[in-house]
Amino acid sequence: MLSEGGSFMKGMFMGALFCLVLSLLGSFSPSTDSRTEDQHHHHHVQAPSKDELKRLSDSQVQELSNQVRVYCIIMVQPKILVYWATAVDTWSKHCDKAVFYTSESSKALEAVDLDEKDDWARLRKALKHAYENAGDLRWFFVAQPTTFAIIENLKYLVLTKDPSEPFYLGNAMKSGELEYVAYESGIVLSYEALKRLVNVFQDEDKCPERGRALWKLSEDKQLAVCLKYTGVYAENGEDAHGKGLFSSKSVNTLITDSMKDNPNNVVEGCCSDMAVTFSGMSPNQMQVMMFGVYRLRPYGHEFHDSLVFYPPENSDND
Question: Where is the signal peptide, in residue numbers (predicted)?
């Protein structure tokens, strides 16, 4: 009887394991057959070099700088109110349109109340709202309030890129076979990429709102899976020298790491001078960053930038 019971339990275990494997395989990620013909085959998107800009006429540069306008989609929750308030007071002022999307309303700060507790479902609603209210804005930046962004450098990165092409940029990561852009470093979407994403939201088989996997994917991976079905793939945002522009670390951490790894050239080893995002900073550190990036200037030193990104009309930004 004991051996029969042991065999029965072993059979039950193997059967359950087999079902588990089938479930995982069936719900993990889209097949390669779903790729469209116009997908990007490159995985690195670089900002234009100074030489590239010199080849453009003044009128061309001015036209491009006027066309690159960014809609910032900032996902907030009342439980991190201090970060929310800091984002309002600092870098979000430099977005051409900054909209805060919250899980529940707050009397303290203005936001679009999505009345949704699930992180992925809330992000979907925010992206759909942004798409429907974009007006003539053609670039979208998705961020958390714990991220610090330099929007002018983001505009420079996409300056010569066509938003009618599907771009999905940021700090590109890989998990198994899935390439995705890390949420904590900020995510950049072109109008075409967002349009495809909103369309695939309607297909529950390809892009379910609640997910069917036995484990819960993070929002950035869910986003990558849905975009992959539309032929849009994660690309790493870099400067003209190949340095990454989106970071999930703070400036302090990056400099500390560079002091260990590149003691003879700390600044060069740390980060790009055209960096777009940093993360992992306290609200006070964000205020210090704001001072350093936008207000502190060494007297007598001129920055010979060939173009200027003007602040949004009626903005009180720095």
Answer: 1-34
Residue 124, pLDDT score:
96
User: 277 phi and psi, to 5 degrees?
Assistant: -135, 155
The pair of three-digit structure tokens given for residue 153, joined into one six-digit string: 């450098």
CA dihedral 156→158→163→168, nearest 10 degrees, is -140
Tell me the one-letter amino acid at 40. H
pLDDT at residue 98 above 60?
yes
| Confidence at 211, pLDDT banded by 50, 70, 90 | low
Using CA atoms, how far residue 292 sits from 96, 150, 187, 244, in Å, is: 21, 12, 24, 20
Residue 169 in contact with residue 235, Cβ under 8 Å?
Answer: yes
Beta bridge partners of 246: 277
| pLDDT for 41 beyond 50 | no
How many Å apart are CA 32 and CA 29, to the nearest integer? Answer: 9
Q: Which residues make Cβ contacts (< 8 Å) with residue 315, sequence separation at least 6?
A: 93, 94
- Residue 32 DSSP symbol: G
Q: Distance between CA atoms of 148 and 287, rounded to whole angstroms?
A: 10
Q: Where are the alpha helices (DSSP H) in the chain?
A: 2-27, 50-54, 58-67, 81-89, 119-132, 151-157, 191-200, 219-229, 251-261, 266-270, 283-290
Span 278-304, average pLDDT: 86
Q: How confident is the model at residue 12 (pLDDT cuts 50, 70, 90)?
A: very low
Mean pLDDT (the chain) is: 84
| Nearest C-alpha neighbor of 247 from the set 113, 148, 112, 139 | 148
